[in-house]
Specification:
The longest helix is centred in the C-terminal third of the chain and has 33 residues. This protein has two domains: 70 residues; 223 residues, no CATH class. By secondary structure, the chain is α+β, with helices and mostly antiparallel strands. Helices cover 56% and strands 17% of the residues. It is flat. It is built from nine helices and six strands, in the order αβααβαββαβααβαα.
Length: 321
């Protein structure tokens, strides 16, 4: 391999590396191109939210009346942390309901706003929302928590916003776990009461310290169980619904694989992929142009080296003569 080949190999390697950085920067930027990402607490949407756009929020709100949370709870309030109370009794089975809906809508932003307004207006709250306008078809997804009493009505209200492409509803029965925790909690509370009686009768410092250690351990277990029971009650009282929105069916996430062939969707995917590759090549060209001074500098240095080597070769025969 000649020195000339080595030099040009180094130059080519530099070009490839920099081009790779350009492509990597493009795709990294694309991954972070979500135009709106929000997280909300139980208080609902931030105070700057506007009224229902184009009346869609009012439309879906009319399909399910707002209800007070106190009336929706099937579980009596839990005892205070630290023992001394009686564990709540289960009136009905505790079912944690979860739903996912995929919709094709005309305007993603309008539908997204309507869903968030509906959740807050019915004593629920928005967990998260994301909107992406970087692709060929705008997409969005929103996760809300709503009272379990209006779970079915909420799904119907959300389906009314567009063309339903897929839907999935699951339920997890946690009644047995809750009853088991209730029984264990009662036993620990009885143990706590016994330790308190022993502490009142203890006279030696070592005995008092030993009882305090055991009492602290029991109370720690009580707090853990009460926290778990509270989580199960709240999870059963508030259902989770995730709505995926898009203006194009092919842009919606697939819930489950199917053997059905959809040639139109394949064509759309191919066109979208072609556009993405085209944008990547254009971005790569822009990076190349921006770095053109560097390419020119490398080319100029290589030319100087080659010119210097030619002059040295030309001078050697002259000196020998």
């Amino acid at each position: 391999m000649t020195k000339r080949s080595i030099v040009w190999g180094v130059v080519s390697a530099v070009v490839v590396i920099l081009a790779g950085f350009g492509v990597l920067g493009y795709f990294t930027t694309r991954q972070n191109s979500l135009v709106a990402t929000s997280s909300y607490g139980e208080a609902g949407v931030a105070s700057g939210s506007m009224g229902s756009p184009f009346g869609l929020a009012a439309k879906i709100a009319a399909s399910a009346p707002a209800t007070e949370m106190a009336a929706d709870r099937d579980i009596a309030p839990g005892p205070p942390v630290g023992g001394g109370g009686v564990a709540p009794a289960v009136k009905e089975r505790l079912i944690i309901k979860t739903g996912t809906v995929g919709l094709v809508v005309r305007d993603v932003s309008v539908a997204l706003k309507a869903i968030m307004d509906y959740a807050v207006g019915n004593n629920g709250f928005v967990v998260s929302s994301n909107q992406d306008k970087s692709g060929l078809a705008p997409t969005a997804d929103v996760t809300v928590r709503i009272p379990v009493k209006i779970f079915d009505q909420s799904l119907a209200a959300f389906r009314a916003l567009g063309d339903v492409q897929n839907q999935q509803v699951t339920g997890q029965d946690v009644t047995d776990e809750y009853v088991d925790l209730d029984s264990r909690l009662r036993n620990l509370q009885a143990t706590e009461t016994q330790f308190l009686d022993i502490m009142k009768k203890a006279q030696k410092i070592d005995d008092i310290l030993a009882v305090q250690r055991e009492l602290s351990n029991v109370r720690s277990q009580i707090e853990v169980m009460q926290g778990r029971m509270k989580y199960l009650r709240e999870s059963a009282a508030f259902s989770t619904v995730t709505v995926n929105l898009a203006t194009d069916q092919a842009a919606l996430p697939v819930m489950e694989k199917t053997d059905q062939w959809k040639p139109v969707a394949v064509v759309k995917d191919a066109v979208r992929s072609l556009l993405e590759v085209g944008k990547g090549l254009v971005n790569l060209f822009i990076w190349f142009v921006i770095y053109s001074p560097l390419w020119f500098g490398i080319w100029f240095v290589v030319r100087l080296i080659r010119h210097w080597r030619k002059r040295r070769k030309a001078e050697k025969p002259t000196n020998n003569t």
